[in-house]
Amino acid sequence: MTLLTRNADTEAWPAADVFSGPAATAWLTAPVLESDYVFEVSPLVRDQAEEAIERIQRNGLGLDDVEQEDIRLPALVDDVPKILSRLDDGPGFVIVRGLCFDSFDESACEIITWGVGNYFGRPVRQGLRKDRRLFTVTNHRGAYQDPTRIGATTALSNPHTDNGCLEPRPPDYVLLSCYRQAHNGGENTIISSYALHEAFAQCRPDLLPLLYRPFHFLPPKLHTWPDGPATIVKPIFEKVGQALHVHYARVMVEPGMALAGIRLSPDQIAALDLLDQLLVDPKLLTTSRMRPGDALLNNNCSTLHGRLAYEDDPDSPRNLKRLWLWQRHRGPGTDPLALDRMEFGL
Fold first, then answer.
1. CB neighbours (10 Å) of residue 259?
2. Three-state SS for 199?
């Protein structure tokens, strides 16, 4: 991956657009090689997962019944900080290999995916009732008519962030476990918010400040409170401390702005069009293909993720299990007092 570098002769960026730190450096100074993002875990993890599933099934528990304490994987403990470091301060995504989700039946794969996810963060609900704990990313063959749910089809899904509109803040991480891979296509794509920001500033520095202003996002129907707001308001780029966070999905922005009764200006449309062009630029993208049994984790604040179009084998369609996770090891974690202080400014 070749990244553009800042040209000192161009117009200066606003102070809020200058970033430093390990995560920015990881993307702006070196290509992302497979050796940088594939992490192999001990075979003991698989053995412990099989023991946990056998006990859970013997006692008649399902995905909605299990708790974190039911799935103990001590062989994973020493690896978790290394993986989290790559998510937070490195390339921003990791393929964890050796978990072997594909060695279980589908219901067991869902349970162990949820259990593994607990080691990396607190699972975030993905619906108020259905899909509360976990979502199956597969071709749902028209079951979802919501145009924001491209992941429920075989179509190309351009890089975007998962916005978790049910909650006051989006998930920090997205975990996808590969139960079954596509017959052809379906490779995952990842792009760094820092690389995207850098390339955008090189092309149109005059439009960059527009992306720091609020946009209305239309939440997917499954991620909407019955009595909640019709849209979610957030910028596309924002500075959080010394970090750059990104929130974007064109399929949510345009209908969200229309629903809010706000016409996008020609400059805003030009900025979104440029974003979309950069999001498919092969110089900025890292493309990888998950193997059955792999788990892909990506930092949902500092990267955008997508997927190439794919063709299915009708008898064994592509099937991934998705978790949304909040960090436990940084910020307020899950402490209700710390969360209230952060979210209510106490």
1. 13
2. helix
317 class by beta-carbon count within 10 Å (0-12 exposed, 13-18 middle, 19+ buried): middle
Beta-bridge partners for 286: 190
Q: Phi first, then psi: give them for residue 330, nearest 5 degrees.
A: -135, 155
Residue among 287, 286, 266, 282 nearest 204 (CA): 266
The CA-CA-CA angle for residues 58, 63, 64, to 5°, reads 115
Question: With 0-12 CB in 10 A as exposed, 13-18 as middle and 19+ as buried, what is 102?
Answer: middle
pLDDT of residue 26: 66
* SS3 state of residue 301: coil
Q: Quick check: 286 and 32 in contact, CB under 8 A?
A: yes
- The contacts of residue 72 (CB under 8 Å, 6+ apart) are 48, 52
pTM of the model: 0.90
Token pair of 10 as six digits: 């161009």
CA 337 to chain centroid, in Å, comes to 27
Closest CA to 100 of 28, 157, 177: 177
The domains located in the chain, with CATH, are 15-334 (3.60.130.10)
97: which 2 tokens?
Answer: 């290999």
Q: Which two tokens stand for residue 312?
A: 């299915």
Q: What is the mean pLDDT of residues 235-258?
A: 94
Residue range 118-127, pLDDT digits in tens: 999 999 999 8
Report the C-alpha gap between 63 and 61 in whole angstroms.
Answer: 7
Pairwise CA distance, residues 155 & 141, whole Å: 11
Two structure tokens written together for 287: 């493309």
Strands 38-40 and 93-97: parallel
Range 269-284 average pLDDT: 95
